[in-house]
């Protein structure tokens, strides 16, 4: 049987890494300096996930709406992603991390697409933490693409509309094969999902913390895990002590 502590460890943690710009502003630095400082925390978060025995870690790195930022910032963010994959892929591979990428890959620059494909390909057989990078990701875009795929299967005569159920959708969205997140953490004090995992987070526990992403260290990660451990997940049922009282 699982120990109590193990039962309280989320299998899948998804993080909305927010607050890089504000962190930089507070120091009189350009926003890009905040993004660069944020990359250090990405490395640390992967290590902490491994240490805490979390199997899946999803990081929201760039949203489908982030293209609307100033051109220079978008280009800096692309540069940081390129640099991260070039520099860190070998290390992630050594640490047995399996990389998955979610989001729309068709509309990103071809060299970045190649890098993302290569990261997945190279680490496919690894058995450690699965690091899911949400890049050019928007939940509504993901659902639209999934609906289109399902409609194409129906119109090709390969799928009976009456057989479509929740599994069909879960198996068609970008996270196919990955369990839903148990815990979604957002840094920077904002309390919204910003188009992140709208299908998958139906029953996730949400933890909003004031700390800005470049300050999100191992200790802050464990504090969020501790908060999760005290939550009572009911999934629409009643909690165990209530059943005991009622019966
Ligand atoms: C999160 O930090 C990083 C990305 C969205 C790429 P922000 O850049 O959103 O930082 P704030 O929210 O402006 O402080
Ligand atoms: C969400 O943060 C996207 C990422 C963390 C990559 P944003 O900063 O883009 O979200 P809003 O604009 O505050 O909702
Ligand atoms: Mg933000």
Automatic annotation (TrEMBL):
Substrate binds at residues 19-23, 31, 35, 63-65, 67, 69, 186, 192-194. The active site is at 18, 66 (proton acceptor). SUPFAM superfamilies: Undecaprenyl diphosphate synthase. InterPro entries: UPP_synth-like, UPP_synth-like_CS, UPP_synth-like_sf. GO terms for molecular function: transferase activity. Keywords: Magnesium, Metal-binding, Transferase. Its EC number is 2.5.1.-. It comes from the Bacteria. Its cofactor is Mg(2+). Mg(2+) binds at residues 18, 205. Catalyzes the condensation of isopentenyl diphosphate (IPP) with allylic pyrophosphates generating different type of terpenoids. Homodimer. This is Isoprenyl transferase. It comes from Hoeflea algicola.
């Amino acid at each position: 049987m699982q120990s109590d502590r193990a039962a309280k460890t989320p299998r899948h943690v998804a993080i909305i890494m927010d607050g890089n710009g504000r962190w930089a502003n507070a120091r009189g630095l350009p926003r890009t300096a905040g993004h660069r400082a944020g990359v250090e925390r990405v490395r640390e978060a992967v290590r902490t996930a491994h240490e805490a025995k979390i199997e899946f870690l999803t990081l929201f790195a760039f949203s489908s709406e982030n293209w609307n930022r100033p051109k220079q910032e978008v280009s800096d963010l692309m540069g940081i992603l390129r640099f991260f994959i070039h520099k860190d892929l070998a290390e992630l591979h050594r640490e047995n991390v399996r990389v998955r990428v979610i989001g729309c890959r068709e509309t990103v620059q071809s060299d970045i697409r190649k890098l993302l494909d290569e990261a997945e390909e190279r680490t496919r057989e690894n058995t450690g933490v699965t690091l899911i990078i949400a890049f050019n990701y928007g939940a509504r875009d993901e659902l639209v693409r999934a609906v289109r795929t399902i409609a194409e299967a129906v119109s090709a005569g390969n799928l009976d509309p009456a057989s479509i159920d929740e599994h069909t959708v879960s198996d068609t969205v970008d996270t196919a094969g990955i369990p839903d997140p148990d815990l979604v953490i957002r840094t920077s004090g904002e309390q919204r999902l910003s188009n992140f995992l709208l299908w998958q987070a139906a029953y996730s526990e949400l933890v909003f913390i004031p700390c800005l992403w470049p300050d999100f260290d191992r200790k802050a990660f464990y504090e969020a895990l501790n908060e999760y451990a005290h939550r009572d997940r009911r999934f629409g049922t009643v909690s165990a002590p209530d059943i005991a009282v009622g019966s």
